[in-house]
## 1
Amino acid sequence: MRAPYGLDILDNCLACPMREEHLFCHLPDAAVQRLNEIKSTAVYPKSAMLFIEGQQPRGVFVLCAGKAKLSTSSSEGRTVITKIAEPGDVLGLSAAISNRPYEVTAEMIEPGQANFITRDALLHFLREHGVVALRVAEELSRNYYTAYEGIRTLGLTNSPSERFAKLLLGWSNAAGNGDPPQVKLTLTHEEIAEIIGTTRETVSRLLSQFKRKQLVQFKGANLIIRNKAALEDMVNS
Amino acid sequence: MRAPYGLDILDNCLACPMREEHLFCHLPDAAVQRLNEIKSTAVYPKSAMLFIEGQQPRGVFVLCAGKAKLSTSSSEGRTVITKIAEPGDVLGLSAAISNRPYEVTAEMIEPGQANFITRDALLHFLREHGVVALRVAEELSRNYYTAYEGIRTLGLTNSPSERFAKLLLGWSNAAGNGDPPQVKLTLTHEEIAEIIGTTRETVSRLLSQFKRKQLVQFKGANLIIRNKAALEDMVNS
DNA sequence: GGGTTTTTGTGATCCTGATCACAGAGGGAT
DNA sequence: ATCCCTCTGTGATCAGGATCACAAAAACCC
């Protein structure tokens, strides 16, 4: 059976093995079964909004396939992307747990699939299964560390070039260690700018500058990192 | 009985009533009693380090009196202050829960008192008392929101003036609503700079500039906010 | 394939804060 | 008082990006 957008439907994506540290993996059977009862699965096209900053938290989404960008905007239209979520990530957890409005907007940037669990069902479930509550606490502290890394990046570096170099290195690490390391560039310059807190033009210029200096090189949509050492130098300048 | 530094010893500061939403308040008697058994209390002078960025997490500190600054530094000596912790705050929680190194350094900026609970004892306690684990999850999501606010501040505003105005307004709100609102300035310009991500000089200049424009005014160590509206305008410029 | 929209490249200008460099002010100690 | 050390104020300089303004290129859609 084929889902739209060329994705395979995962009939039990809560238990998907893609991330060992996954929130809802390796739970007691009773818990897994209960989870399967309270979750509902849906498929989302590109640009679908899972939830929007400021909304009351309806529940959590467990991303099974596709990618989503989490962003927040100021009243004047400035936007920061705080995270690119990947399969296995749990979205909206802290809002659901603390019953505050969603603090970010989650928008699919690649078509995908997610499980949804309502807030009530989740809290009920957590009260029944104390062990899982600890898991949730761990997941929240992971979220916290991610946010915290963002602060370090935005606060401890002043130059966009530094942040951009850091971002590229981060991506190439996450993508595994090819040699030479390479990264598939799926985001627009605008989006990259919103991650590293600068303008689209600056990202364009940095990219050409990096190419000119032979730090990176394009092969289709893939960015090959030619001079990793030089990029690393820029980061701890 | 008087403690050093003119502080009253709180003989059971875990249950201190200062913050209703306090992590360890309003728990079942059994839990409170167990907590009292596993905690240990100590008094800290100004400049004492509760823990340092990168150390393995020994446990959590519940701040009972005094203030502490949480900060992180880059290899080149640049520093960001992520939070000024106040009585009732739990420090080192996410590190302890997730068993990662402390992500920040906690240094007392006012003498005070804190309870310490070792990581092992805490985890043990949480496994016994599932309800409290949920509380911990809530506290962690509070931490997350705080970090997240930091990202918004650093990422969505470009001008130090904007961030400084925002900081002052935040402080005046936290201090309750005097009229005119006023704030006790306990931090050095350097420290303020490390909060809003700028330099000491810029903070000095901004302060004089705000005085010149009659936005604020000094009364000893207290900063009186003369023109709140104007500051608010700067924030959503 | 043509027309439309989104994305990217690049020049010119301008301005804010970072940086460097001192001098003065305050605050403890002895 | 005196010394010392940490803070604060302010000037001068300078560079790196933000901003504005187009044009080219690519992606997208009937």
Note: The interface with chain B takes residues 72-76, 78-80, 82, 93-95, 97-98, 100, 103-104, 126-127, 130-131, 133-134, 136-138, 140-145, 147-148, 150-152, 154-157, 197, 236-237 of chain A (CB under 8 Å).
## 2
Amino acid sequence: MAANSQFAVAVHVLTILAKSGEERVKSDYIAGSVNTNPVVIRRLLSNLQEAALVVSQVGAAGGTTLAKQPKDIRLSEVYKALPCGEVFALHSKEPNQDCPVGRNMAAFLCGLQKEIDKSIEEKLRQYTLRDVIEHIDGA
Amino acid sequence: MAANSQFAVAVHVLTILAKSGEERVKSDYIAGSVNTNPVVIRRLLSNLQEAALVVSQVGAAGGTTLAKQPKDIRLSEVYKALPCGEVFALHSKEPNQDCPVGRNMAAFLCGLQKEIDKSIEEKLRQYTLRDVIEHIDGA
DNA sequence: TTGAATTGTATCAAAAGAGGTTACAAATAG
DNA sequence: CTATTTGTAACCTCTTTTGATACAATTCAA
């Protein structure tokens, strides 16, 4: 259970919101489709709201809608909105600084990490939420 | 501590081996540079050996050497040799199959996951162990 | 204005994964 | 034969993720 599925759930949630249009959707309903607890959904929506991808309304008749058109929401934005980890972690303990390899390894890996992250974002930028919906509906 | 640093450590280990040339290196020495326990290193070398990237020798005067020239070891091979997780995990519980979105989400995400993994590998294929060494030495 | 519904968030518990450590069998050089 | 070294199993601890409960704040509607 320890692998981060937030991005997967976020795409799922946003797709549901997209298909609901203007109508506010409750965390309870979303949780039913994702098959999890409403609080998990609300936590996630909180991140998506910070990134200005959704708008939530508190109170009776409250709920959440998309903040933009599906065609204007790129998956790279979703990815960046979440506190997902990097592709690979750096050393858990700092390498031995007395070793020439150890001393310079961290800097190299850190640069590589950033480069990979960039290529992931480039890939995800190619897809909008509308593409997702089309794919889902076509299935 | 739960983020996987195996790739980072693997690149570190292979760099040490590369710089040692024909000479066998002991897990104890490598652990000293990486600043971890020898068993952690041996576990990792076990994976690298399955991928035919290194050769280990049991017994007194044992140790490990590279199985190929540094210029012939691409970082994509290293990445594939390790049981690293995916960029993002799929849902921890299966989505609600009664919901049209839930029903088709998994397939879409799985495809996306594979596509991203491919672009990571393409990026890593651009670097060989020799490039790493040059970068480290030049620093 | 009262009451029901809903989000936002704090707090805790449960499950899984990663890394560290010890222990020891098997192999090998000398 | 003995010392050394890998390979691996077993176990522990720490961290992260997810799930769950509780409740204050907000909002709508009667």
Note: Chain B has six helices and two strands.
